[in-house]
Amino acid sequence: MKKLQNNPLILMYHSINNQKLKRLSGIRVSIKNFEKQIAYLSRNGYTSYTLNEMIEQKDKLPPKSVVITFDDGYKDNITNALPILKKYNFKATIFVIINRFDNDWSLYRKTKNANIVNHIDKLGDNDIKNLLESGLIEIGAHTINHKNFCKISLEEKKEEIIKSKKILEEKFDIICKTFSYPFGIYEKDDEEIVKEAGFIGAVTTEVRKVDLGADSMFLLPRINIKDGYFKFIYRLRKE
User: Fold this and answer.
1) CA angle, 208 as apex, 68 and 58 as ends, to 5°?
2) Which of 185, 226, 229, 198 lies closest to 33 in space, CA to CA?
3) Which residues 6+ apart lie within 8 Å of 30 measured at CB?
4) Which residues pair with 29 in a beta bridge?
């Protein structure tokens, strides 16, 4: 694979927690391994950006630029991930579902994954305020309910995208600039809806490094990070 030395890596995380999950184990990285991963990035000269910073500065990014992202809005993003980010002075973008409490959204993708995400503690509004006050965190939108975009109407899709941005901006007094597609699923015209809603960029779950010369800022790929340290290094070098 051709190396794109001046193009950034966008890493995708969900939950940072030592408790093992029987299913959906791929969404969880242990605290120890998360710190090892961030320490590796710091030790090897990576420069950290939030997603909106990466997009706004895309014409002048240095080699080894990295964006750390978290999807959904789990409580351990502040209790377990933030202290490590602070320790290494690394930034992150957290994509928050508006209706994240008592919402078993994994059912919208696969019914076998029922009763997992709804039992994981979520970020409260005060947690999000504290994350923003840290100066290291950008809050992005991840829809109202995390529904599968291939299974809802165009009007419902527009409401999920537009309303999620509006709610976050009004509740936290921010400009919400970035978006994450639920499950990484999108259809032909969805990037235009996201763009028209006022976002400057969006992420998918396509697994590869960003190509700033070719990629749409509204269909950005990410590298899904799972638990483990040596696998993490392999993924970075492979891409």
Assistant:
1) 60
2) 229
3) 16, 17, 18, 227
4) 16
Q: Domains of the chain: which residue ranges?
A: 9-238
CATH code, 9-238: 3.20.20.370
pLDDT digits (tens, 9 = 90+) for 157-216: 999 999 999 999 999 999 999 999 999 999 989 999 999 999 999 999 999 999 999 999
- Dihedral through CA 18, CA 25, CA 225, CA 134, nearest 10? -50
Backbone angles phi, psi at 96, to 5 degrees: -105, 130
| Helix (H), strand (E) at residue 127 | helix 125-133
198: which 2 tokens? 């006022």
- What integer pLDDT is reported at residue 109 of this predicted model? 87
